[in-house]
Specification:
By secondary structure, the chain is of the alpha/beta class. It contains 5 helices and 3 strands. It has one domain: 2-Layer Sandwich (Barnase, Chain D), CATH 3.30.370.10.
């Protein structure tokens, strides 16, 4: 299975997302930077199996990319060989950090 990681520490907006996606997945030349185009290439043009994984998402990004998450989760159910997951960035416990410095 081909797993593609999209690291959200390097993503500020949708344009950044599509830039990173194009660097990691060979998309057709006619690909438009929009969610409909992404759904079209996943359902008909990309080689499967494919696992797309979003890592290090912030809570703000989780909200800003909600439409992406919903669409990709739907595509996972509808498309043979496609899977998707996402993970929030990990925060260290600041209280424990303070205890260690004292």
């Amino acid at each position: 299975m081909n797993t593609v990681y999209i690291d959200f520490t390097e993503i500020g907006d949708h344009e950044d997302f599509y830039t990173q996606l194009k660097e990691k997945i060979k998309l057709p030349h006619h690909f438009g930077d929009n969610l409909d185009a992404l759904a079209d290439v996943i359902t008909g043009e990309l080689e499967m199996p494919l696992h797309l994984e979003f890592v290090n998402m912030s809570v703000d990004q989780l909200e800003n990319f909600d439409d992406f998450l919903t669409t990709l989760e739907d595509l996972e159910e509808e498309t043979d060989g496609f899977s998707f997951s996402y993970y929030l960035e990990q925060y260290e416990d600041e209280e424990n950090d303070e205890d260690e410095t004292e």
